Give the backbone structure.
Amino acid sequence: MPFATIDIGTNAVLLLIGEKAADGKITSIHESAELTRLGQGLGSSNRLHPDGMQRTLDTLKAYADICKKYQASPIVAVGTSAFRRATNAQEFVDRIQKETGIQVQIISGDEEASLSFDAARAEFGDNILVIDIGGGSTEFIWKTAQGLHTQSLKLGAVTLQENYGQHDPLGTEDAVEMEGAVLEYLGMLPESALADTKGLTMVGIAGTVTTLAAMTLQLEKYDHEQVHGHVLSMADVERILSDLLPLSTEERKKLPGLEPKRADVIYPGALILEEAMEHFGKNSIVACHHGIRWGLAYRL
C-alpha cells in the first residue's frame, strides 16, 4: 500500500506518495510542492501569521485529498523550524488535525538534520556534507567515526529577506548587510567542523539549491530528473547572485528555472549558499531533489 510523507517548512510544504520495496528502495508515485510562506512575519512576532497558516492549511487539505485518492497509509507529517519557533504552533497543529485529519509532529533541529542526511546518503553515500537552506534555518550535517554531527543556524532565506531585504530591487547596502549577517552566523560554527568536513562532497537539499540548479539548466519547467545530481560550481552561484541583485522581484519572476513564488527569497538563499561554500572550502555542490519527506520514507 502507498505511504505519504509531508514536510511542512517555513517556506514550502512538500508531499511524497510512494511505495517501499522489501529491499528498502523507494519508488515515487506522486510528489507535490507548494510555497505557502508559513513563516511570514515570524522573525518579528514569534507567531505564525493568520495568512501563512491559511495558505498552509489550504495546501494540506488538498494534500489530504490526494492521499485519499491514492489510498495512502500511513500519512506521516512533520513541522520544522517555524513550528519550533512560533508560540502558537501547537494551536495550529491542533487546527490541522481537526480540519484535515493529518497529525503533525514538531521535530527538533537535530531530528530534521538527521532526516535530511538520511535522504541524501541514500543517493550519494556517507562521505558528504549536507546543507539544508530552509526558510527559517540552515542545517549542516556530516558523519564521522563518532557518529552524525549537526549544526543548525537560525538563519534561512525567508528570515534573511525579512530582516535585510528592505528595498526592491535590493540595493548594495542591503546586500552588504545580508552578507554581514550570514558571515556572523557562519562564524558561530565550531572550528572542528572544517576539519571534519575536509574532503567531503557538499550536497544541497531543499528549494534554494534545487532552484539554482534549475536556473543554471535554464529549465522552463522544473524537472527533478535533470536537477537531481546536477553539480553547481561556485562560479555558477556567483554569476546568479550577480544577475539577481539589480533585478526587482517582478523581473526575477521571468527568469527560466525560477519558481515565481520564490523570486523574493532566491537572492538571500543563494547568498547563504555562496558564503557556506566559501566557509567550508567547497568549489562545487551537488543538488539533491530528495529531502526530509524522503528521509521520513526511508524510516517507515
User: Anything to note?
Assistant: The first strand starts at residue 3 and ends at 8. The first helix runs from residue 42 to 45. Residues 128 and 200 are 5 Å apart (CA to CA). The chain has 14 helices and eleven strands.
